[in-house]
Amino acid sequence: MIKSLLVANRGEIACRVIRTARRMGVRTVAVYSDADANALHVRSADEAVHIGPAAARESYLVGERIIAAALTTGAEAIHPGYGFLSENAEFAQAVLDAGLVWVGPKPHSITAMGLKDAAKARMIAAGVPVTPGYLGEDQSAERLQAEADAIGYPVLIKAVAGGGGKGMRRVDAAADFAEALASCRREAASSFGDDRVLIEKYILSPRHIEVQVFGDAHGNVVHLFERDCSLQRRHQKVIEEAPAPGMDEATREAVCAAAVRAAKAVDYEGAGTIEFIADGSEGLRADRIWFMEMNTRLQVEHPVTEEITGVDLVEWQLRVASGEPLPKRQDELSINGWAMEARLYAEDPTRGFLPSIGRVDDFHFPHHHARIDTGVEAGAEISPFYDPMIAKLIVHRPTRTEAVSALRETLDEGIVGPLVTNSGFLWRLLGHAAFEAGVVDTGLIERNLETLATRPEPSREGLALAAMRLAGTPGATPWSSRSGFRMNAAPRRDVRLSDQFGRTFTTELPPEPAFDYWPGEDATTIDEGGERFRVRLARADGGSGGAASDGAILAPMPGKVISVDVSAGQSVTKGQKLMVLEAMKMEHALTAPFDGVVAELNAAPGGQVQVEALLAKIEKGEA
Ligand code: ADP
Ligand code: ADP
Ligand code: MG
Q1: Span 128-147, pLDDT tens digits
Q2: Could you tell me the domains of the chain?
Q3: Residue of minimum CA distance from atom 12 in ligand 1
Q4: Can you tell me which atom of ligand 2 is nearest the CA of 203?
Q5: What transmembrane ranges does the database entry give (predicted)?
Q6: Which residue among 28, 220, 291, 407 has its CA within the 20 to 30 Å range from the CA of 256?
């Protein structure tokens, strides 16, 4: 067994890997950029090495620095986590060439699955059903169009080197093909440095089903059943579960056997995921599930599989990398109960899911409901440099219904502030009738975006009552003095409350006691028309939401202005798009926080902006 391990990653996955390594008595080495000097993953490890500036390109993506850090600290092995260098075959080879153990598949297996076209060709040869389409041998626009016409619309154009949901275009009619192709190629060239594409039949009623596989160096491969990741936004997973709703035993056997064949075809070692797309229009059927791609690493959503199988996948990774055989045979693995994971993000669904950057002052989740995988703690910084995921909330219950309500309770009781999060969005999504019934497809979120992404505010009455419960009514009980709030000369007191979405509200305590409450509760719930607001007294200094309430439109992260949709002096309405910023390779619309006038405008298309730069100012009133 390896005795020491360098974790070439950050955030929750670095913490996750370190946790298991420690439990197994393996010494851990973290690496960190300037932005992560105080991060949780650094403090969780036995040792940490600084590897460069905040930008991933200059730190977490610099293979030589990471290998040098392993050599100087005497770490025997490198675990890449997910993202960053995890699917980079050259890096895996360089790790091996340096005499270190690579916790992952052999470089040739990564390469075989790295490009979607080559991977599909390989799978066809191995007898794995693949999504019908054209693999793109001839990349001329004419040929691609002709192939798309032959496949029949809708089709999906995919960058062969794509990943992370980028480089994909759905085309519904022949007339739109040329333009979609050009735009897909531009994005593929800029994101992946490779503009080649393939074309697939766009599967209707699509469900994302994937199978966890595991191989060892002795030629054994097992599967650890399926996950359903159909709840997606822009091809990115939002909620994942295992097993898949509506999967019968025969279909499960067929798809899991296909996954094992796929892994064996590339000599697979370690943890991997075979992703399939299913046409779910008539339930899950073995003849309507096709191979999409393989992810040759540990997956973000691996915890749901761990929960239903009782296997620690990171432990298996470390054992297999050390040359041990798989700890269990296929017939020793089974599904127990239902697990579900929600990805909690620092982003604002009401503003086009714009990342919400800044310090996390409050961070608390009750652990009795859920497993919380996170790299964040109170005082941590969500920086513009990396993925703004705050935590993965994972529940495991005997049934799916119980899992859904446990996950909602977790969201209810969790507190993250003053950042805005997608917690309310997740809460509504989990309560959506189709989802609760297990009727899922990848378009569910998009179709219901308007209701899922709105965020009602608690009523004035609700806030006033909550304030009384939290701050107490002066003089109402003999114990009220304990709270430090006392009736004095002022007839009324303003109380500031913050909710689980990071919003701050001001309410007044009435001059006369209306109810006999005594303070002491930490947080209280306002339950109104199916919405739940979990509120607490806001910190005296907690200046959250300042930007929105005073109308200053600040750049949430460094980036480039793509378009400006308003002009100075123009009247705007709440929610109206002001401009679009491109940052972290994604486009983010900045919108008006309330009805008003564009009093100041400091942005022009093409301009580069710094984080917190004042881009515009909206003032209340009319033009
Ligand atoms: P998962 O199924 O594990 O969520 P994803 O493909 O969504 O897999 O990616 C997992 C992580 O890796 C995410 O943080 C994603 O942003 C990152 N990632 C995946 N592919 C790429 C890529 N080609 N370039 C940059 N980041 C990527
Ligand atoms: P990535 O490497 O970005 O993860 P994938 O090929 O795994 O790319 O596709 C990402 C998502 O796009 C899938 O989870 C699915 O929701 C959707 N998708 C992919 N291929 C198809 C298809 N042929 N038909 C319908 N949806 C698809
Ligand atoms: Mg994928």
Answers
A1: 999 999 999 999 999 999 99
A2: 4-103 (3.40.50.20), 132-201 (3.30.1490.20), 207-452 (3.30.470.20), 460-537 (no CATH), 548-619 (2.40.50.100)
A3: 83
A4: 24
A5: none
A6: 407
